[in-house]
Amino acid sequence: MSGLLIRQAGDEDLEAIIRLHEEDELGSHGDAWTPENRPAYEAAFEAITHSSDNELFVAVTGDEVVGTFQLTFIPNLTGRGALRVKVESVKVKAARRSQGIGAKMMEFAEKYARTRGAAMLELSSNKTRTNAHRFYERLGFARSHEGFKKRL
Is the keyword Transferase assigned to this protein (predicted)? Predict the structure, then answer.
C-alpha cells in the first residue's frame, strides 16, 4: 500500500485510536470516546508512552489514522533470556480492511521488534476471529498455545 506511514502515536492520535476500538464490537471492551472516558484513556496513553517496555503505533494515510497496534516488550528467563514482544490492540479501520494495511503493520512490528533485539513476536486473537487467524498464519505466525483470561 503506497502512501501508508507507520509511526509512533502522539497525543493528537488518541481519539482516532479509540474510535478504531469503538468499531470493534467483539474486542472493544465497551470503548467509547466520551467526556467521561477521556481521562482514563489519557492516563493509559501517558503510561504507555512513558514506558520503555511499550510502544504504541498508528498507520496513517494522508492525515487519517487507519490502523493501530501496541508492542509490549517482555524480558524472559526462558529461551536463555530471550526478549519477547507481545502485539496487542491490532486494529484496522473497517472501511480500509483487505487493503494490505494490517500486513504492513505486522511487517513493521516484526522489523521494529528485531531492532530491539527480540527473539519472538507473539499475539493472541479471539477464537471467533477465523479470518484474522488465517491472516496471521499467512504472515508466518503459528498456533502454538492456548490462551486463558480472567477478568478482575
Answer: yes
